[in-house]
TrEMBL record:
<keyword id="KW-0812">Transmembrane</keyword>
<feature type="transmembrane region" description="Helical">
    <location>
        <begin position="249"/>
        <end position="272"/>
    </location>
</feature>
<feature type="transmembrane region" description="Helical">
    <location>
        <begin position="284"/>
        <end position="303"/>
    </location>
</feature>
<feature type="transmembrane region" description="Helical">
    <location>
        <begin position="146"/>
        <end position="164"/>
    </location>
</feature>
<keyword id="KW-0472">Membrane</keyword>
<feature type="transmembrane region" description="Helical">
    <location>
        <begin position="170"/>
        <end position="189"/>
    </location>
</feature>
<dbReference type="InterPro" id="IPR036259">
    <property type="entry name" value="MFS_trans_sf"/>
</dbReference>
<feature type="transmembrane region" description="Helical">
    <location>
        <begin position="374"/>
        <end position="396"/>
    </location>
</feature>
<keyword id="KW-0813">Transport</keyword>
<keyword id="KW-1003">Cell membrane</keyword>
<keyword id="KW-1133">Transmembrane helix</keyword>
<feature type="transmembrane region" description="Helical">
    <location>
        <begin position="20"/>
        <end position="42"/>
    </location>
</feature>
<feature type="transmembrane region" description="Helical">
    <location>
        <begin position="218"/>
        <end position="243"/>
    </location>
</feature>
<feature type="transmembrane region" description="Helical">
    <location>
        <begin position="93"/>
        <end position="116"/>
    </location>
</feature>
<dbReference type="Pfam" id="PF07690">
    <property type="entry name" value="MFS_1"/>
</dbReference>
<dbReference type="InterPro" id="IPR050171">
    <property type="entry name" value="MFS_Transporters"/>
</dbReference>
<dbReference type="InterPro" id="IPR011701">
    <property type="entry name" value="MFS"/>
</dbReference>
Length: 424
């Protein structure tokens, strides 16, 4: 892998560069809010930790249910218009959140936010893909992901002094700044001029489009990607809890692990994405992601029981690096395969269906990791490694089946005739 240059991190088109800036702005706003969300909700809104968890669980379910209908709507309106509307929607509800004072209001507002948040990722993928040529699509998506990681980190840094102030005004200003970031993003996105529509608009209604979805192979691919997306919960929940409960590592070492993941993701996501640019590269990337996550889980198991802080920290760092490579390979493989197998007149609904795997992981992942993997100890990590290996091995036959299903009947018949001729 050659060392990346500055040019590698810049989209090839002016529209792509504008979209990257848009992504940076709303990522800063999101990072600003997420860093202080729990503190804001407890100290400013007056909720208990249990109420916050319940509200987030309800909103997560709402987001899961709203994703596909919004994707179907995008096939009728266009992904750019839909994404612009989602940014405006999120800005309005973040502004409302700043003045919430009850549990009921929090559930309503957070559910409205979650509905838009869950649909934003597939719409962003559709718009980003429309800003450049197909040959540069993978790199553009990698740049967008890198930019978003930078934005999340910047938002967290901005939040630090506001949280230090500790006043209601500071907490509210943090949430209102998030709303302002989405307003600015919506303005920039609405002014973008794509070469063509981000999706081919369909004349059928969203409900008809949902009822007509019959691609079970694509749905299986979404589920497979959701299993591999468990790295999100492993990083935020599994790694910190395992480090504190089962190893000799100190609590102060956990932020170092998170920082390592963030830095590696920012620096290496673009060069790592090059593996998907060759024929069959996207499937290879997804397989590599699964095997890297399996290796990370085995190293986690090895870390259990190490009483030495130095030894435990070193092994956990190795697990973190493997987890980060698994994350990057899974991301690039998932992007390309989800886009490749989505028909041109159904990008919105297909990409939204694909995102359900990741959304579902966010809902059930914490329970699986804490109540299953960590509760079972070393054996739990070994079983999880086996799950990741199985998922990785299933990528090839599933993508092969999707390609065969996508071939026109005449093309499949010709392949069979050629095969029979060669056999005789």
């Amino acid at each position: 892998m050659r060392l990346p240059s500055v040019r590698d991190y810049v989209p090839a088109t002016s529209t792509g560069r504008t979209f990257a800036v848009t992504s940076l702005i709303n990522a800063i706003g999101t990072g600003l809010y997420l860093t202080g969300a729990t503190i804001f909700l407890i100290r400013s809104v007056g909720l208990s930790a249990g109420q916050v968890g319940l509200g987030m669980a309800v909103s997560g379910i709402v987001g899961f249910l709203a994703t596909v209908p919004i994707g179907a709507l995008a096939d009728r309106l266009g992904a750019q218009r839909t994404l612009t509307g989602l940014y405006v929607w999120r800005a309005g509800w973040f502004a409302a959140l700043a003045f919430v004072h009850s549990m009921a209001a929090f559930v309503v507002v957070s559910s409205c936010l979650a509905a838009a948040e869950a649909a934003t990722q597939p719409m962003s993928q559709a718009v980003a893909s429309a800003t450049t040529e197909a040959a540069d699509r993978t790199r553009t998506m990698a740049i967008v992901r890198t930019v978003r990681n930078v934005g999340f980190s910047a938002g967290a840094l901005i939040a630090a002094p506001l949280l230090a102030v500790g006043s209601t005004v500071a907490y509210r200003s943090m949430v209102l700044a998030t709303a302002a970031a989405f307003v600015l993003s919506a303005v920039l996105l609405g002014r973008m001029r794509l070469a063509g529509p981000a999706t081919v608009q369909r004349k059928v209604g969203p409900l008809t489009a949902i009822k007509g979805f019959r691609d079970w192979r694509y749905l299986l691919l979404s589920g497979l990607n959701g299993v591999l997306s468990l790295h999100i919960t492993l990083l935020s929940v599994g790694l910190p809890l395992w480090a504190l409960q089962a190893t000799g590592a100190s609590a102060g070492f956990v932020p170092v692990l998170i920082l390592t993941n963030t830095v590696l993701s920012i620096v290496l996501q673009v060069p790592v994405s090059k593996v998907a640019e060759r024929d069959g590269g996207a499937a290879l990337a997804l397989r590599l992601g699964g095997f890297a996550l399996a290796a990370s889980s085995l190293v986690m198991a090895l870390a259990g029981g190490l009483s030495s802080a130095l030894a435990g920290g070193a092994v956990l760092m190795g697990a973190c690096v493997l987890l980060t490579f698994g994350e990057m390979w899974q991301a690039v493989g998932g992007w390309d395969l989800s886009y490749e197998f989505a028909p041109e007149d159904g990008k919105g609904i297909y990409l939204s269906v694909f995102s359900l795997g990741g959304t579902g992981q966010r809902i059930v992942g914490p329970a699986v990791v804490t109540g299953g993997v960590i509760a079972a100890g070393t054996a739990g990590w070994i079983v999880l490694a086996g799950v990741f290996c199985v998922a990785a091995l299933l990528v090839a036959p599933l993508t092969r089946a999707l390609r065969q299903a996508a071939e026109p009947p005449a093309a499949r018949s010709q392949i069979l005739v050629n095969a029979e001729g060669q056999a005789s």
